[in-house]
Amino acid sequence: MTFRAAAIQMCSGVDPERNTAAMVRLVREAASQGATYIQTPEMTGMLQRDRAAAKAVLRDEGNDVIARTGSELARELGIFMHVGSTAIALDDGKLANRGFLFGPDGKILNRYDKIHMFDVDLDNGESWRESAAYRPGSEARVLSLPFAEMGFAICYDVRFPALFRAQAVAGAEVMTVPAAFTKQTGEAHWEILLRARAIENGVFVVAAAQAGRHEDGRETFGHSMIVDPWGRVLASAGPEGEAVIVADIDPSAVKAAHDKIPNLKNGRDFSIERVAGVVAGGVAA
């Protein structure tokens, strides 16, 4: 069953209410183009480096403005509304980087907490310790929807192919990767990683991104993208600012890709042994 997917590109700031208004406007635009599945980026609700300032305005799931508005939009527009992620306050004082998928009745069909924490030191001086504020998720799911089997990831998760392979083996036909990729890492790896995950698993990838310079000073790479199972880019956005991209997705293309390159079926278990490559007197035979 072919469906029209949309990826919403945003430049979220520090005010959740303003970000919510931008989300509403862009989602309405996507729906007007016929999209029935609409995805927003990672941290749709707020990008804020100042942890104290962020925690002062963040709420639990039941009181979060982005989650509530996502549910309302899904019900009003009759769409599958995927809030790529937003920061949710947890009982233990930490946050969850949590995505939500709402059905056309406004009910939550799936939650996904980002599993892999972005704890890195980049060579341009940027340093990130996501685990200092966020509690990582531990559960991946494949969700059966009327039009496709869908798997979930968020941003840094894209660097961990085992997550995508496990979901593809479990039947995922469309993988979702909402993100707020840094400009430096995005320039180097964003498109390559998305196309690789699509090709090696024979799946569609939908990736809505944050883009441009944000109020808290960070820069994100943009280039929201929809990729088919053969690695072809069906739609893409630019490096800065808001955008809506759409593409028609036919899940039968997943089977066609698997029939051509049946690597999921051909995979084999194997053992690995660490051996010394050099011995006294020369190279080991």
The level of helicity is: 25-40%
Highest CATH level, the class: Alpha Beta
Taking all Cα atoms into account, the compactness measure Rg is 20 Å
Q: Characterize the overall form.
A: globular
Structural class of the helices, strands and pairings? alpha+beta
How many domains make up the coordinates? 1
State the helix count.
Answer: 7
Task: Give the CATH H-level superfamily.
Answer: Carbon-nitrogen hydrolase
Strand count, sense and barrel status of the largest sheet are: 6 strands, mixed
Low-confidence stretches: none
Distance linking N and C termini:
56 Å
Percent range for β-strand residues: 25-35%
Series of H and E elements: EHEHHEEEEEEEHEHEEEEEEHHEE
User: What is the second-level CATH architecture?
Assistant: 4-Layer Sandwich
Mean pLDDT across residues: 93
Give the neighbour order of strands across the main sheet.
Answer: 5-4-3-2-1-16
Structural features, described:
The chain has 285 residues and is an alpha+beta fold. It has a single domain, classed as Nitrilase/N-carbamoyl-D-aminoacid amidohydrolase (4-Layer Sandwich). Helix content is 27%, strand content 27%. The protein contains seven helices and 18 strands. It has helices at residues 16-32, 51-57, 65-77, 161-169, 183-201, 252-260, 263-266, and strands spanning 3-9, 37-39, 80-89, 95-102, 108-113, 119-121, 127-129, 142-144, 149-152, 174-176, 204-207, 211-213, 219-221, 225-227, 233-236, 243-249, 278-279, 282-283. The longest helix is centred in the C-terminal third of the chain and has 19 residues, at 183-201. The termini are far apart. The mean pLDDT is 93.
